[in-house]
Each structure stands twice: as C-alpha cells, then as structure tokens.
UniProtKB/TrEMBL annotation, chain A:
Compartments where found: Cell inner membrane; Cell membrane
InterPro entries per record: MetI-like, MetI-like_sf
Domain ABC transmembrane type-1: 92-283
Record's subunit section: The complex is composed of two ATP-binding proteins (UgpC), two transmembrane proteins (UgpA and UgpE) and a solute-binding protein (UgpB).
Broad class of the protein's primary localization: membrane
Function statement: Part of the ABC transporter complex UgpBAEC involved in sn-glycerol-3-phosphate (G3P) import. Probably responsible for the translocation of the substrate across the membrane.
Species of origin: Azospirillum cavernae
Top-level lineage group: Bacteria
GO biological process: transmembrane transport
Protein name: sn-glycerol-3-phosphate transport system permease protein UgpE
Keywords for the protein's UniProt record, in alphabetical order: Cell inner membrane, Cell membrane, Membrane, Transmembrane, Transmembrane helix, Transport
From TrEMBL, chain B:
Pfam families, per database record: ABC_tran (PF00005), OB_MalK (PF17912)
Keyword terms of this UniProt record: ATP-binding, Cell inner membrane, Cell membrane, Membrane, Nucleotide-binding, Sugar transport, Translocase, Transport
Residue ranges annotated for the ABC transporter domain, each copy included: 4-234
Record protein name field: sn-glycerol-3-phosphate import ATP-binding protein UgpC
InterPro entries: AAA+_ATPase (IPR003593), ABC_transporter-like_ATP-bd (IPR003439), ABC_transporter-like_CS (IPR017871), ABC_transpr_MalK-like (IPR015855), ABC_transpr_MalK/UgpC-like (IPR047641), Mo/tungstate-bd_C_term_dom (IPR008995), NA-bd_OB-fold (IPR012340), OB_MalK-like (IPR040582)
UniProt family annotation: Belongs to the ABC transporter superfamily.
GO MF, any single term: ATP hydrolysis activity
Cellular-component GO terms for this entry: ATP-binding cassette (ABC) transporter complex, substrate-binding subunit-containing
C-alpha cells in the first residue's frame, strides 16, 4: 500500500474514486480467502466438539471444549464404541515416510538424469531425453495395473518401498532441472574444469548449491504430491499398519453401518494438514533466502 | 613458468577448418597477444591450449610436455574468461581458493596465497563478499586472482576486458601490464582491441581466417606489416591503400594521379610492376613538389590533439591524413600532400604480401 502522506493517490480531484480502486483488489482477495478458508474453519471448530453435537446437524461457529479429548483420541486410540481405526500417529508416520521418500527420491533421480542429459555427450543422448519426455504423457493411472503386478510379484505389497518407488520416476522434475542446467553458462563449467573439478566434484560443489532454490521449490510440490496420493496407496496397502492418512480419513467416513465419528474425522483431518503446512513454512525461508541474495 | 609451443596446430569443425596450421613458440615469461577480427579463430586456438577444445592436428607443448591428450586440470594453466565465470554461490575467498582446495594444497598455504593475491589486486576488503555484490571491474580482478593463486605455468586470457566500460578497461589494462611485469608468467591473451594488443604485448600474433598473418613485436607489426590485411587491421585511422606502378627505372612508384614517390631503395627488378601502396595517415604531410598529389578536402575531424582529414584524389580515390594539432584547413579546400620519405609500404598487387624491403 502506498504511504498515505506522500503517495500520489491522496491528492488530486479523484481521491474517492482512487480509494475504491485501491480497495477493490483487497475486497476481492478477502472474499476469496473467506471462501477458501471457511471449510477449514468449520473443520477446526468441528474438531473441538463432541460427536453428538456435530451429529445433530447444527454445528456452533465457536470452539467447543472437546479439543484435547478428540485430538488425543485420534492420535493414539485404535477404536471407539462404534468402529476400529488406525491411530493417526501410525498413519501420519506412514504418510510422512511415503511423501518424503517420493520427494527425495524424485529429486535425487531427476537431478542426476538431468545432469547426464544436460552436461554429457554420450551415444543415444537425445533418444534417452525423448524417452523421458514421452513418459510425461503417461499419468500413473494409465500404467497402474502393470505396475501393481510388478510390485506384487516383487513382494512389495504392504511395504514402504512398494508405496514410494513406483511413484519416484519423474519426467517433469527431470525436465525442470535440465532447463535450469542449460542456463548455467559454459564458461562456469569450463572454469571448474580448469580448476580441476571432475564431474562428481562439479556436481556437488557447484551444481547442487546453485540448484538450491529449485530443489526447495520442487521439494514442496513433490512432498504435497506424495502426501495426497490416494489411488496407489489404496491398492498396495492391505494391513491397517501401512495405511496412509489420506486413506485413513476416507475409510473413517461412511461405511454406512454406523454413524460417523465426525469429531474424530475432523481432528484427523486437521492433523493431516499439519505436515504439508510445516513443509511449506519451512521451505519458504529457503525461497526467500534464494530470492534475496539473488545469485546471477 | 614455462614456454608454450604451438606446432602446426589445426582445428576442424566437420568440414569447416577454423585453424589452418599455426606455429609459434611463446618464450618463458613472454606476453603474447592473439589479435584478429571476430571469427578468425583466436578463442579456438586459446581453448585448444587450455584443453577445452580437442586438437585436430599438430601439437601443443607446455613446459616441454606435449599436452594434446591431457585434461585442462593437468596442463598447469589458468584461464580468465570474458564473462568472469566466477562461482556465484561462493565468496571471493572461496572462488580464489577452490582450485587450490581441489589440488589438496594445505589450508594455511591456501590462506597465504589468497591473501597475497588479494593484496596485489586490492581485493582484501571484498574477500567475504559474493560475486553478485561486486562491480564488473572487481569481478574481473577476482577472476584474475583465481588464476594468480594457482601459480600456473601459463595464463590464458580470452577477451578479459570486453565486458568493461572504456574507462575501466584502460585502468584494468594498466593493472594487467603491472601484474605481468611483477609476476612474469607466460601469458596468451586474446583480444580484438588493437590498443590492448599494442600496449600489453611482447609479441602480437595477428590472425585472419585461421592463419597467422604476422608474428612480431607491436612496433614491427605497425612499422612493417607483413600483409595488406595486417596493414589495414593495425593502426587507427587505418592505412591508406592505393594502386601504384613501379616506374621503368625502378627508382620510384607512380601514384594514380601521376605523382612520383621515390622508393627507399631502387628496385630495378620490379620495373613496371603494379603494386599496392600503403601510406599511414600520420605519414602524409602538406607539401609541394614531384611527390605531392592534389586532394580535395571532404571532411575534417578535429579530435583535439590531432586532426583527421578525409580527402579525395583527382582520380576519385579517398585518402586519410592525420595531422598533429588543430585543423588548418576546411571542407572544400584544395591541398597538396606527400608522404614522408621512407614511409611507403609496398605490397604485391595480387596476393597482398609485403614486398621485401
Ligand atoms: N563448435 C563449433 N562448431 C563449428 N564452428 C565453430 C565452432 N566454434 C567455433 N566455430 C567457428 O570457428 C571460427 C573461429 O571461432 P572463434 O570463436 O575462435 O573466433 P574468435 O576469433 O574468438 O572470434 P570473436 O572475436 O568473435 O570471439 C568461427 O568461424 C566459428 O564460426
Ligand atoms: Mg572469441
């Protein structure tokens, strides 16, 4: 916002009109935020009341007193009088392990393959590049049956490896890194060669530090991608011990046989939002750092 | 410190021959400038010495060792690039220290070497800064520091001053000169700026289309250009080149307008031979007599310290004259000019090589 004492908007004949134009974007933004935030607010409030209050259908808009009880229950108990659940602490761990493996694995593999494609001349280089590129056109769902078959035959059902490895290959991230690597001037690579850095040293001493902000951005995107996986975990996990939190929430809702424990569902949902939010907040510091000492 | 010998070195990119066989031996501690127009192959030659470009034919020998098949890191050279090529994420200190760290130089020694280089280049205050926090000139000094700390057998420079503004370029040129006098390291320096070449070089290698047109000291190259190309490339404003014919007696050369210029030595063997006649603008003076030609003044440029006159000979050829001091004529004047005695350059009319003096 412009400074009210020196800004050009406060003087001149159009002051009132100008004000409105200044305010309009804010109004739009505020309305937008309210629309987006309202369901989350309802979830937060819901997680602080007891099941009966929510079940009656008129949820108050102010917090109730059951928060500790609900969150404690959702976190560690495996059943209520109505149904059996996997405790959030187990599902949370499963989800974190899966999302981290996917994010870290995707970044590691794609940065290495981009390094190969961008910096080395080897036979069939462009063939490999186009093969990577073409896999972009095949979403996970298309190859899910054969993938399932492979994972099952390898005995990876109900394992973390089975949950994450099939999702790790990533053409998108490879392309992103390749594009970034192509912007690195040839002279920088040559200067490193003359300084005596071999391919491995160049990668770790120069390329990796320069890719920091790209890695941070991709990590956020990929962590959330992994966290939100639904179809694949549903297929490869059978035991309750391997359930991810996204699967857990959907299983808690509506088998139809009993009323839903809405208070626990909402507490679980709120807990499920925390790790992605934490990742965004933590990584944001890296973005800003990268932006502030903008390096070339 | 070492000699750098380039022996019949060639480079082809597919069917295109970029370097067509160049021979030169750079002495220990010598400063060799590679000078030539854009695209003549200066960078290519330098990069072959550095090991950044493969060598199609011939040999590069550094310090008595054939380095054709060695990696850049094993050639004991350091290079300074036009766009500095500093590591953006490292401090000035780390930029200079990186090559030493990789080579396993002990830490205390790295520190003394970097401190010494920083002192020579007046970079002491900037050691903790990132390259992005430095000016262009300071960045170029860091790039030079990175080369100095390595204490290599040879420095290679590829147009290191081209990204700087005119004033800074002059300043850095003097610094490089001083650095070279102080360190005495064999250097190969690519530029297309003839002032840089004339002021820095012990010897200049003038290149054109991948061949060496001439190798010589700056004064040799200026005073006795080996070809019309060198004659036209060195010197500003450029040398006048006119068609002439050596007279029947071999005593003089006849200009297009009929003026007879005496030759420094008689050439009876070349009687009636058509030649290209080179006269530097600064060697023409206003005078009368047999050797003088009338010109019409078309344009007068007063540069302060001297004046450039654009004149036209009666047969329509243009002639540049450079005179000391302020202008003494104006556009439209008729002047009579003649070259100073002994200031003629004769070139073969067909292939442009200098005729033996
Ligand atoms: N990778 C390449 N493939 C094909 N031709 C090339 C390649 N690199 C350079 N050339 C050609 O080789 C010739 C010499 O190039 P070089 O870069 O050495 O010129 P230069 O003298 O350094 O010019 P400048 O002053 O513009 O830097 C040019 O004609 C160029 O087109
Ligand atoms: Mg060049």
């Amino acid at each position: 916002m412009s400074n009210p004492t020196t800004g050009p908007h406060t003087t001149g004949p159009h002051t009132a009109g100008r004000r409105l134009i200044d305010l309009l974007p804010h109004i739009v933004l505020i309305v937008g935020v309210l629309i987006f935030a309202f369901p989350i607010y309802v979830t937060l409030i819901g997680s602080t009341w007891d099941a009966a209050t929510i079940g009656r259908g008129n949820l108050p808009m102010i917090p109730g007193g059951e928060a500790l009880n609900n969150y404690g229950h959702a976190w560690s108990e495996s059943h209520t009088e109505r149904a059996m659940y996997t405790p959030v602490r187990i599902m949370m761990m499963n989800s974190v392990i899966m999302a981290l493996s996917i994010a870290v694995g995707k970044i590691a593999i794609s940065i290495l393959s981009a390094y190969a494609v961008a910096f080395f001349r080897f036979p069939l280089r462009m063939v490999f590049f186009w093969m990577i590129f073409i896999t972009l056109m095949l979403p996970v769902e298309v190859r899910i049956i054969p993938t399932y078959k492979v994972v099952a035959d390898l005995g990876m059902i109900d394992t973390y490896a089975g949950l994450s490895i099939p999702l790790i290959a990533s053409a998108t991230a490879t392309l992103l890194f390749r594009q970034f690597f192509l912007t690195i001037p040839d002279e920088l690579v040559e200067a490193a060669k003359i300084d005596g850095a071999g391919p491995v040293r160049f990668f770790f001493d120069i390329l990796l530090p320069l890719s920091k902000t790209n890695i941070a951005a991709l990590f956020v995107i990929l962590f959330i991608y992994g966290w939100n996986q639904y179809l694949w975990p549903l297929l490869v996990t059978n035991s309750a011990d391997m359930e991810t939190i996204v699967i857990g929430i959907t299983k808690m809702i509506g088998t139809g046989e009993a009323a839903n424990d809405w208070n626990l569902i909402m507490a679980t949902t709120v807990l499920a939002m925390l790790p992605p939010v934490a990742v965004v907040i933590f990584m944001q510091r890296w973005f800003i750092k990268g932006l502030v000492d903008s390096e070339k | 410190m070492a000699t750098v010998e380039i022996k019949n070195v060639r480079k082809s990119y597919g069917p295109v021959e970029a370097i067509k066989g160049i021979d030169i031996a750079v002495q220990d501690g010598e400063f060799l400038v590679l000078l030539g127009p854009s695209g003549c192959g200066k960078s290519t030659l330098l990069r072959m010495v550095a090991g950044l470009e493969s060598i199609t034919g011939g040999q590069v020998v550094i310090g008595g060792r054939v380095v054709n098949d060695l990696d850049p890191k094993d050639r004991d050279i350091a290079m300074v690039f036009q766009n500095y090529a500093l590591y953006p994420h490292m401090s000035v200190f780390d930029n200079m220290a990186y090559g030493l760290k990789i080579r396993g130089v002990p830490k205390p020694e790295i520190e003394t070497r970097v401190a010494k280089a920083a002192e020579i280049l007046e970079l002491g205050r900037f050691l903790t800064r990132r390259p992005s926090q430095l000016s262009g000139g300071q960045r170029q000094r860091v790039a030079m520091g990175r080369a100095i700390v390595r204490e290599p057998a040879a420095f290679l420079f590829d147009e290191p001053l081209s990204n700087l503004d005119a004033k800074l370029r002059t300043q850095m040129r003097i610094e490089i000169k001083r650095l070279q006098d102080r360190l005495g390291i064999t250097s190969l320096y690519v530029t297309h700026d003839q002032v840089e070449a004339m002021t820095l070089a012990d010897r200049i290698l003038v290149m054109n289309h991948g061949v060496a047109e001439q190798i010589g000291t700056p004064l040799e190259v200026y005073q006795r250009p080996a070809s019309l190309f060198v004659a036209g490339f060195i010197g500003s404003p450029p040398m006048n080149v006119l068609d002439g014919v050596i007279d029947a007696s071999g005593q003089g050369v006849v200009m297009p307008g009929g003026a007879l210029l005496p030759l420094p030595r008689p050439r009876p063997d070349d009687a009636n031979r058509p030649v290209k006649l080179g006269i530097r603008p600064e060697h023409l003076t206003i005078s009368d007599g047999l050797a003088a030609s009338p010109i019409l003044v078309e344009l007068v440029e007063a540069l302060g310290a001297d004046t450039v006159v654009y004149g036209r000979l009666p047969d329509g050829e243009s002639l540049l004259i450079r005179m000391a001091g302020l202008p003494s004529c104006t556009e439209g004047d008729q002047l009579s000019v003649a070259p100073q005695p002994g200031a003629l350059h004769l070139f073969d009319a067909a292939h442009g090589r200098r005729l033996a003096d």
